Amino acid sequence: MYTNNKLSKAVRLAIAFGAASATAFTAQVTAAEEETAKVERIEVTGSRIKRTDMETSSPVLVLDRAAIDASGLLSIGDILQDIPAAGAALNTAFNNGGNGATNIDLRNLGAQRLLVLVNGRRWISSLGSTVDLNTIPSAAVERIEVLKDGASAVYGSDAIAGVVNIITRKDFEGVELSVYGGENASEGDGRQYSAELTFGITSAKGGLLFNMSHVTQQPVWAGDRDISAFGNSSTTEKGRIQVYNNQLSQGTIDTLLDNGYTNLGTTNTNPNDDRFDLVPQAGTGASVGLDTWENRNAAVNGLYNYAPDNYLITPQNRNSFYVQGYYDLADDLRLVSDFVITNRKSAQELAPMPVTLGSAFGAAASRVDIHANNIYNPFGTTLYGDVSRAAAAGFDPQAYTPYAAQRRFVEAGPRRYEQNDTTYRAMIGLEGSLGDAWTWDAHYIYGQNNQDEMTTGLLNLTRINQALGDNCNATTNCVPLNLFGGFGSITQEMIDYVSFDSVARSGLTLKDYAFNAGGDLFELPAGMVGMAVGIERREETGYDTPDPLTVTGESSGNQRDATEGGFRLDEAYVEFSIPVLEMLTLTPAMRFSDHSTFGNESTAKVGLELRPMDDLLIRGTWAQGYRAPSISNLFAGNADSYPTLTDPCNTVTATGAQIFIDVNGVPTPVQQALPGCAGVPQGYRQSNTQIRITQVSSPDLSPETSTSNTIGFVYNPSWVEGLEMTVDYYSIEVEDSIGRYGAPRLLTEYAAGDAFAAQFIDRDPNTGFITDIRNFLQNSGKYEVEGVDAYFAYRMPETEFGTFKFAVDIAHAITNKFDGEEQLGVQYGDAGYPEWKGTFSIDWMMGNWDAHWDTRWVDKMDNYYTVAFGLTAEDGVTEVLPSYFVHDVSVGYTMDEYNTRFTFGIENLFAKEPRAEYLNNDLAVSTNNFSVTEYDPNMDRYVYFRATVKF
User: Which pTM value belongs to this model?
Assistant: First the structure.
């Protein structure tokens, strides 16, 4: 039963003739069938029913072993992110917001809506239901099959956009050693190394595969590339303090911190004196009858450039151990098992921590007071972060507004986030047959992912409060903190007193039990009716334990509560293959699910295969899909965030002028025009654009649901040998998608007087400052995507100059809407939605030589800011980001007598750089001023060499 030599050879031959880049899997096994009257059927991704045809009703794209090697990439995730159907997903070029993981997205529907399998079985995911593809060692992979169709009825939750099924190497014999090294040619950075050892043995009754691999990825710094070398933060280089307090004799002070305060109440117009380069700006303190003091030397004390302190490509080291085996216990019973453990050590680095104090920055920051007795306080009175404490000290709360201070701790050095991530997964199963017509399999999977993250460069707000408070001196074991000097005023002793290192731990445990059976039911005039049935139980539990100072809000980083929870999911499915006519087959499927948190769900799918002639397959599907809420969706602890938001209840401009809103042609004060703002104090001005919000999970969420349709054809004309074409149209609609209600939406509805929105917003009644917005999750979003995929390939007959193959893979998006808003053709920071993406490849082989040329293309896109704000080139904005072409080449040579192969390649042959989103580098919607998901972050010729020897 298990000696599948004829079919295995046919499949390997078909894959070998595929392009060395992403190819549609349209291999024919006719030759193998002609050689033997009985060919074993195999399972093709997209269906549980085994068959002899490699083509099904669903479009499947395959990356073979040759394509993996020719890519010059060391991560399965990086390889998959280059296919035209891929959307924006997390990768190691995400420094701010990344964690070392690499995901895959299809159709711009999100990585959480794509199911990842290994040998047809689930892989372990994160708390957010995304899979880190770096946990799968590429050296153990035979090929990758990408199902570009909804498949929840066949595979269960998450398969809304499609399925990635990674097939590991089978029947491997011998020892193979492969080493790899590469770096950016001009800059000499971004070096990568790998060493892989694979060992395999087979016998008449079993086989064993063993693989060890190591990968080192060194960083690229944002400051080492012109496009990413500059970024403006909201804090100044030396800091900023705003004091709105008419109890101070100096008046209202709004100054960029310089080298100290001298004669604060005196006007100084000497441009060469940078001790107190201050001039009065009349009117800006009009709401309290005072002047505001501004620093005139903005060119010297400008906004802080954080970019040089950031990684553009983050570093990591990965070590993997993989073993798989099988043993025939009897003629019709086989034991199968595999085990993998991967350890990843990764890091991200950001600019030094900006400390933000005062009520404008939330409850935690407002508890810090700068006491009059602090030896560095130049004002001679206490600056209170909260009105209630100021009132208790005798200040008039109606005339007092707390201070707001920002100071970047440059002296403390950068913030560094280091992950130690370990993933292991073990599977044991049985495979058997019941006669010639039916086969079955059962398995148990146990997996865990555990991550420790250490963060350095954080600040302890309790210590800062003590260091700025009363009676802070050596006798109280307290070190006073100087927030009022320029760079260098914060000493190492001060840093040691107020800083701390954070340790957080998170993890997920997976248990999966499954039984599947399939075979022939009965025969119809057009052929045999096939069926597959199965049951599965999946249990997941997860946790996230932040550092205690993070939980209590004492950290200068965002506050975050602990996460703990899990779910159980029981499922059963049935699938049929019904030959209605000799040339027409229907493949209906149904799955029933029982989830411990939301109850029952059912999904269905129907596929159609029509062969009007031997050369042509017309195919189509209709499928329902669903995605169960993740552990993070259901059980995540509350977490702070500080997005840039505009408070609609702001009553005065920066110059102190009252704001009026046009109501039926009549200028009306904000408090009267917007009912929700009626209680806001007169004269309230939003002093900080970053408003604290709390991200809240929702245990009562329902699953997302989807409907997808595909129709297309596969054409292999017999009159042109070597030519293949596939064209597939798709449309996917996701309803009840899980997403946050939205802080801007809550603010707008709150200002309009909506009681529902008002319960999620907290505002200080004395100062008017918003102290919190609770941004909760709900089932309300809707995605609509539509497009056409096309693949054309031609393998020329062999010539005296070798064999050539040409391939084009194109993804054309027609619609990409979220909640009715069309996003197509627009670049939103690191998430771009081009209308066209494609690859073009030329493969050449002659004797022991081979070469590959791959071109990746991203269509032009509009800059988001031009769409959202109507900005033009006159505003210093790049209006249109032009089409982007990157060329990769490689040359290989095989020494047959030594079983050795050498490959030399260059990624980004012409060192193509993307266009910066902003010509003046003033405002950027992405961290690096360009998207790291659509464009090559190296921006340099990456040269690599690989040597592989087999013993």
Answer: 0.87
